[in-house]
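[job 0412] stage=complex_fold ligand=zinc ion status=START
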Amino acid sequence: MSVRTRRFSELTWPEAAEAIERNAGVLIPIGSTEQHGHHLPLGTDALIADDLACAIAADEAQDLLVAPCVTYGYRSRPLSGGGPHFVGTTSASAATLMGLVQDVLESLLEQGFRRLALVNWHMENQNFIYESAYLALKRSPAAVANGARVMIAEAGFGGLSDEMMELLFPGGSFPGWDVEHAGIMETSLMLHLHPELVLADRAVDDEAERHPFYDMLPVPDAFVPKSGSLWKARQGTAEKGAACWPEVVEQMRRGIALELPR
Ligand SMILES: [Zn+2]
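[job 0412] stage=complex_fold status=DONE, emitting structure tokens
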């Protein structure tokens, strides 16, 4: 089926009512406003989350809408996002993020939407958005009885194939998703999706002096890579992004088709 727009914010209210009537789903992209090294914009996570939701919704057969992106995320942490010490990083507290996402979910459930998915691209938001979904459903027993479900995709990059991991991180050089921040994958995806926003000649290969398994407060300087890139951004290429993006989109599409069928 073909509709005028997949963007929730561009619908009129009668079109939203029609969407509820035909049991359309709603994807809620969630990102951050956070430093991404010298070469990627502060809105990288929000842009990728929104692009991902739009790409999933482009499959008309699943009849999905894309809600306005949550563009602030939970506090940036040094070992997975560089931390709050970089100018530009503008974060929300856990309570604020949880409250916002819970309110949006409850409102959509109350309106009658029954197929909802959180599409997250900022590691620090994990668990908090799960809690929002948990609490929203707990407070919406009528919607649950009516078949409402919420999918929580906390890490859109989590399920890549071995072949894709080998392409991105050859020879088993995958450093862990925590440091894949303004690193190879994000740089590659941004070169593919928004090349005009990437200052590729300013990308650096970097890593923190120390990256232990635990965290510390106050933040030790040695935990923070000076550039804000947590890994080897110079290995990011548009070709890797072009190869990786369809797989990221497709695995999410398959998950949604399975868990939130029309
Ligand atoms: Zn990011």
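The first helix runs from residue 13 to 21.
[job 0412] exit 0
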